[in-house]
Task: structure prediction
Amino acid sequence: MAKMNRLDQIVKLVDEQGYLSVTDLSEKLDVSEMTIRRDLTRLNDQNRILRTFGGAASRRSEEPAFSGKPEAPVEQQKESIQVDEVDVLVATSVNAYYDRLLLDRVGKKNIPIIAESVDMPNQCTVVMVNNYQAGFDLGRAAGQYLKQHGVEKAYLLDLCFELANTQTRSRGFVDGLAQACPAHEVVLSINARSRAASAYQITRDALEVHPDINLIFAINDSTALGAIQACRELNVDLDTMVVVTFGLEGDTLKNELMGNSYCKIGLAMFPEIVSLACIDAAIGAHRHEDLPDQYITPHVVLTAATLPDYYNRTADGWKLNWEAVRQHLSLPARLLSGAPQYSELNIPIKIGLIVPFSEHEWYRSLTTFVKEHAGQYGARLVSIDADQSVRDEVERRRRAIARKAASLVEPGEVLLVDGGPIAGYLAEELRSKSNITVITNSVVVFNTLNPCPGIVLISTGGAVRYSSQVLVGPTAESALKELRADRLFLMTGGISLNFGLSHTNISEVTIKQAMIHSAREVVLLADHTCFTTESIIQLAPLTVVDRLITDDALQSSIRLDITKLGIRVLLA
Result:
């Protein structure tokens, strides 16, 4: 099995420690602090760690138990499931990269997509609240509350997020607030990354710099919890602060709303109803029925006085009063009977649900209710963790690249095999070959091929770098001066048109350069994540490469530019 690359190691170390500084990571991974900072920026953009000043925090631990008890993660299926193994996919946008990578696989198999909350490419329909109107209603209610309590001017902290639906919520909230409270000021509007930890830190900093803030709008319950915790720790007067949440996703914020809390108003999105709509849409799409472009579900603004009108408090938590819903709210036409129109059918389909934020109470509630409703109609729900699915997808593509590389190998050839994230997969593919010679500085490759009698195996020797499991140093470089190979399978950390091939560690750079000089043909093995990245040390210009084997997630414009350099591009 391939050794984890440096980015995976960073995530693993940060998850284990909770927080590590740039200096700590630099020492542990034997790379420069500049490289670590670049890596952390990249991992933060991928939502794999939380970038902080001077280091990184784990996203696993960033949701503190604000309610006084640990929050259980969304229950995942024990089986390993991929996004293209379901009959219908209910998906929420994570970010452009995740969407493109995951939905590419789904699209190739013509699997129907039901978008949840925000539009996605190739969707059959989107199940969502009217985000602008809901935000407007909530903003107007917040302004009215302030007016009723003698507050003449609202000073707003908007804890927003980058997705289109959440941006619309924030815009609607400000417009509604302006109608009810003309004397208002948006003091700050900051992306809280849909995380409690981020919202907590932003709120603390904002209140210390702008103590006049008296209204906080949170685009979901997680950010609301972070804001509430910050207010508590700063001992903000309960009578001078109003936290408003968009969601009321589970029991936590309902309890806050009913208690002596900063949360005075909340908008209920009703995961019970959204889940029913998702199942109805999923089954309808599977049966090729006509679905509306937008499947709008109801919302309502609730306070401590009105929450019991829609929810009953039981020993097992808050339960939706369906009778009140049908009496007071406008349900989608397909749900007017209170359930999808399939009560007499057994529909044995597998419905996938992508969970982008497994710590969010919205997705815990949604998963529970979707699973419950699916079971009523013979369907089966499989929740799919977005982060893990993307990691699995990248590894699948790396394995395909290795398979393509191995298909080029002919009997009698002498190969040089470099170390890297694809090296272990390539070694597994080469095990079935015979009458070839493999020269390698990779400990993983050497150990994988060592039991194969049909392969002459030569190690370069040298000192082992623990982090990458490759042999480096003068001994290895001297050995390569005496050897010649027909083909080098090269791997590196960064590839760009301007900077060429680049890597993170000088000792690995020099051994890779020696390999290039010892080979008659250089075949670069690189998945799409390596491109447009520039590591700290230049290895060689891109023109030293004869062939590139990559995956089809690499943009066609980049592939075309590489082809213009005279490099043959092969897609795995």
User: Anything to note?
Assistant: The radius of gyration is 27 Å. Residues 6-58 form a domain with the Arc Repressor Mutant, subunit A fold (CATH 1.10.10). Confidence is low (pLDDT under 50) at residues 61-80. The chain has 19 helices and 29 strands.
